[in-house]
Design goal:
Layout: H1 9-41, H2 44-80, H3 84-119, H4 127-138, H5 141-156, H6 162-184, H7 189-214, H8 229-261, H9 265-301, H10 306-341, H11 345-359, H12 362-378, H13 382-407, H14 409-433
Length: about 450
Amino acid sequence: MKDLTQGKEGKLIVQFAMPMVLGNVFQQLYNVVDSIIIGNYLGKEALAAVGAAYPIIFLLISLVIGVGSGFTIIVSQYFGARNAEKVKRTIDTTYIILFFAAIAVTIIGITFATPIFRLTDLPQEVLPQARSYLIVYLTGTVFFFGFSGTSSILRGMGDSKTPLYFMIIAALTNVVLDLLFVVVFKWGIEGAAIATVISQAGAFITAALYLNRRHEVVNLSFRKFVFDREIFRNSIRIGLPSGLQQTFVAVGMIALYGIVNQFGTSTIAAYSVATRIDSFASLLAMNFASALSAFVGQNLGAQKPERVRAGLKSTWIITSGISVAITIVVVLFGENLMAIFTPDDTVISIGSSYLVIVSSFYIVFSSLFVVNSVMRGAGDTLIPMFTTLIALWVVRVPASYFLADRMGVTGIWWAIPLGWGTGFILAFLYYLTGRWKTKSVIRPKR
C-alpha cells in the first residue's frame, strides 16, 4: 500500500499511475487483439460487429462502474485517515453490491441485446454477429466486475502494482486463446468473446486467491462479508453522479453509432478500429487522472489540502506532454496503425481521417480528465457529471447530427473535440471556485 500524503507530489503520482497505465494497456489488448484477429480473419462485417457491441457493453456496465468509483474514493479517504476498520467495511460492501449488480447486468443485456442494436439502425449483415459476440461477452460480467472492483479498491489504498501483474497474465492468455479459438478452431466471432471471458475469469480468480493470502484487509468470502448501510449511502452519494454520467455517456455513444451506422459497414468498421487506437491515447490521461483522484482523496483525508494544487499542476504538465507526443505519432502513422487491423483500403482511409482530426485535440481531452479528477477525489462528483453531460448532449451529439448533414462522416469527427473543449472550460471554471474542497467524507478538525 502506498502513502500519497508525504513526498514530492509529481513523483508520487507518476509512480502510482504507471502500474495502472501498464495494466490498462494490457486490458485494452482484450479489445485490440479481438479486433486485429477478427478484422484479418473474419472480415469487416465481423469487425463492425465487435465495434457495434462495445457501446452496448459500456452502457450496461457504466452505472455500476461509476457507483463503484464512490467506494474507491471512500477507501482512499479512510485509508488516508488510518481507519482500517472502515476500510474493511467499505471493501465488504463493495463486493456485495458488485456481485448482485453483475447478475442483473447479465440478464438485462442478454434480454435486450437485439432491440438495442435495431434501435441504432445497425445493418442487417452485421447484427447477428454483434448479438452473438455481446451475449457471450456478457456471461463474463461477474468476473469483469470482480476484478475491476478488486483493482479499484487496492488503488484506493495505494496499491496499483498488484492488479498489473494479473492483468498482464490475462492479456497474454487472451492473445493465445484468440488465436486458438478463431484461427485454429474456426469458432468465429463467438470464439473471440469466449477467449475474453476465460481471460477475465482467470484474472479475477487468481487475484482473489492471492489477495486473500497477502492482504489482511481483503477477505473475499461472502460468509464473512458485512454490509454497511452508511458506507453504501455515502458511496451512492459520491458514486451515483459518476455512474449516471457514464450511463449518459454510454447512451451518447450509442446515439453516435446510430449516426455512424447510416454511412454503412465500412464506416462502422473504420470507426470501430479508430476508437480502439484512440483508447490507447486516452487511457494514459485517464489513468493519470485516476492516480490524481487517489492522491486528492488521501490528502484531503489526511487534511493536507495544500498538496492538491501541486498534484494537479504536476499531473497537468505530464499528461499534456504525453498527449502532444501521442498526437504526433498518430498523425504521422495513422494509416499504418489502421492497416494492422484490416486490409480493406476503404476502411483504412475513413479511419485515418478520424485519427488525424481527433488526435490533434488529445491535449484538450487529457486536460478535461485531469481537472475533473480533482473534484472526484474530493467526493464532489456532481459537477463533473453535469459538465460531461453538457459537453456530450448539448454540444457533441447535436453537432454530430448537424455537421454530418453538411460535411458527411467527417463532421462527426469534428464534433468530438468540440465536446471536449466545452467540458474542459466548464470543469476548470468550477475548479477555480474551490467549492469541491467542502465535499470530503472526512471533515476537517476544528
